[in-house]
User: Fold this.
Amino acid sequence: MTKATKYYWFLALLLITCNNTLFSQLSETVDNRIPPVKDAIAVQFANTISEADLKSYLEILASDALEGRETGTRGQKMAATFIQEHFRSNNLQAVVPGASLKTYQQGFSLYKSYYKEVYLSNSENKFVHMEDLLFYGDANVKEEKELELRFLGKGELKDYQGINVKGRMVAFYTDSRDDRARKIKIARDQGADSYFIINQDSKASFQQYLTDYGHYFSQSEIGQKPSTSGEILMFFGHPELVADLLSTTPDQLKEAMSATSKKNALSKIKPGKINVVANKVDEEFTTENVLGYIEGSDK
Assistant:
């Protein structure tokens, strides 16, 4: 068996490993329901892949030096160059037409969508995404948009009695994902169009939540076309922040919430005028596939 044939199988593995937008890690198990391979040639090729070789290659591709290999970044391009040189050293043929010679790298364009600036503010304070609060949504609000913020306590249907929330942002407590989804539906049915989810009891606990889970709220999206924008504006935070936006105190929020058995208890918390910005941008960039060909492998 030739050395080139051995690396023909490794070609597929490297291409999958490098594209971390499709796979973040190699599976550690094999599905026992898959029938065993009976093709003698396939088995012969598979037996050329050694644990030592895989470990060596993966230690390079998964190293911190490649910075995660996110599509379009320097780390991804370093990984592509490593694979290209590996193909070249094992005499795989370049197949991508170039200016004068064929090359191994096939360039193409994608779009990266992310939020450049997100915040809530009033006349006294400004609260920034990933610092003071967390934003989740798909709306694109490039210039400050004024909204009225209403506090709805626990966000149950009875809490909306006597309070007009149509076209407004509503703030309420939730204690789980299912609870949040249920209360957002209640708010939407009452006419609210944006939401402030109080998912932590204090500023300190929210800062810990931000540390633990904030990275899930800051990821960009990559696609073949510019992203489309929707209307969802949803923020996560703590009662101290809501109190600041409403120019009141956390104790007054708690007092109003505990007195919901009394008529119009929550309406005593005056609405606040706030501004929102959620500036979404799309950037076109170039990335690469790495392709190599072994003579005879198409037969």
